[in-house]
Specification:
By secondary structure, the protein is α/β, with parallel strands linked by helices. The protein is 28% helix and 15% strand. It has one domain: TIM Barrel, CATH 3.20.20.80. The N terminus and C terminus are likely disordered. InterPro entries: GH, Glyco_hydro_17, Glyco_hydro_17_plant.
Length: 413
Amino acid sequence: MPMDFRHHSPILLFSASLFFTAAFSLGINYGQIANNLPHPEAVVPLVKSIGATRVKLYDADPRVLKAFANTGVEFIVGLGNEDLARMRDPKQAQAWVKTNVQRYLPATNITSIAVGNEVLTFNDSTLSTNLLPAMESVHSALVSLNLDKQVMVTTAHNLGILEVSYPPSAGAFRRDLTQKLSCILDFHSKVGSPFLINAYPFFAYKANPKQVSLDFVLFETGSGMVDPASGLHYDNMFYAQVDAAHSAVEKLGYKNVCLQISETGWPSKGDADEFGATPENARKYNGNLMKLIADKKGTPMRPNSDLNIYVFALFNENEKPGPTSERNFGLFKPDGTPVYNLGFNTTGLISTNTSSSAGSSGGTTSSGSSPAGTGTSSNGYLSITADDAERLPSQWSLSFLCLIVSTVLAFQL
């Protein structure tokens, strides 16, 4: 039974003054597979207080879209994998767009529709076959409603779509997915929408903690690694993962397509075999990631690119299936208190004045499944996979750098 927060459980509000500047633009994933989350109206001030200007949903929850009306916060709304087949019908696609997008515009700033989530690595031929036609149908619906200039159509992939990922310059898509991805990239090129990637260095470390340097995955600067083919220097795995995806996209001839990061994060808790899932490591990963975002630096391969990063996730979600880590990616607990200290200043309290209800979306995997779940690739989130890790230098001698909240100079070295 959902918990009632109407008369208790205040939400703490935090200012982001230590991390965020006027030019800082944080994206956050707002998943809702939980039975104890505050009402979206109580979430609005929390989102704004951490400096988040962009929110990604896994559905088109009317409560959320109404609550954020007239806030200016940009939204990516999600269309579930279960809806792909019926979206091939132009009439159904238009009805969905009218109900879940048009009715909230312009008060709620919906800028993108994510059609499906991590579809290609479910290895489900029906889902994969329906993905691009559904994207095209939804885009056609937007065109017919004169909304295509303000709302883009895209889909998010995990890095299990890569067959080769090390070194980054050798990145290449799985051969069995190349044709589908080429067609999807052609769609992005024609309509001007971004190619979305979910990148999780955590899963690479979890798979090979003896081979992969923890400092390297936590953005702790040091000697790093040099791509032997390109000569480019990488001081963190996140950039290496992203550039492996860049290389794969370029190999198909779509260098003009913008690649953006729809999910990345680190869990604060995990099972016994989920090495590295601790509050301290989550604090380091997300804290250093936010410095990187504030510094507006692209990757070594694309130094001027804007990755438009969305952190996963706003809240811990207690009803997500899978290993313990899946329920512990949140920056905040359901009552709005931080899971770990990212340097936000407490500035006040508000009553939630809500009753929580279980959500129908959200997560590091589509439809709430776990990374190791049936139908996903064995290294679904990995760019630098277990095999790739064995080819990396065994010793990086990366120096430890304490998280200094007030500076972003570490990533300018």
